[in-house]
Specification:
This protein has 183 residues and is mainly alpha-helical. 44% of the residues lie in helices and 10% in strands. α3 crosses α4 and α3 packs parallel to α5. The longest helix is centred in the middle third of the chain and has 19 residues.
């Protein structure tokens, strides 16, 4: 079964936040198990190969997701959320590229795989959230009646209302059109 992933947030950290759907109605968890997190990391392009995810990493991803959401949608984020993001971002395992000489003498760049790929991917998401939180970029919550997905408002006038036209914008416009012509 393919999950209902949404990569319309405009940033990896918002795409992670959007793995909890239907927030207005109690929430629908898309990261249901370790396999779902592995699938999301692959679909998000954060890892090249399907990782083996441990239960503790799934819990860490969910905690990170909620801390990011609070950080980006509340005026005064808590010290605990700030600490969680900093600690997670510090887990980045940057391995330098290596130069490999092929038998024919040509050179090839090799990028070693991190020893803890899930932790490294979550660290990249946390670093993205820190960058977003300290920028002038505006994060919005979709105005769709039953949506509440988070997204970066990169519209020219900074007045975008919906996570996407295909998902919520067209439905809202169709409802408004129906209401106008019904009266």
């Amino acid at each position: 079964m393919e999950a209902d992933w949404s990569f319309e947030g405009g940033r990896p950290c918002l795409d992670l936040v959007n793995t909890l759907r239907d927030r207005l109605f109690g929430g629908r968890e898309l990261l249901t198990d370790t396999g779902a997190l592995a699938d999301w990391l692959l679909a998000a392009g954060l890892l090249g190969n399907r990782p083996r995810v441990r239960a503790a990493e799934l819990l860490a991803a969910r905690e990170l997701r909620e801390a990011i959401d609070r950080l980006l949608t509340t005026p005064r984020p808590s010290n605990a959320d700030t600490r969680l993001l900093n600690d997670t971002a510090a887990g980045t395992e940057l391995l330098p590229p290596r130069l490999h000489r092929r038998p024919d003498g040509t050179l090839r760049r090799e990028t070693p795989r991190p020893r803890e790929p899930v932790r490294t991917a979550l660290a990249a998401v946390a670093a993205d959230a820190i960058e977003l939180a300290t920028s002038e970029i505006r994060v919005r919550i979709c105005a769709g009646e039953d949506c509440a997905l988070r997204f970066v408002d990169s519209s020219p006038k900074r007045n975008r209302q919906w996570c996407s036209m295909a998902r919520c914008g067209n439905r809202a416009k169709a409802r408004a059109h129906y209401q106008r012509h019904r009266q």
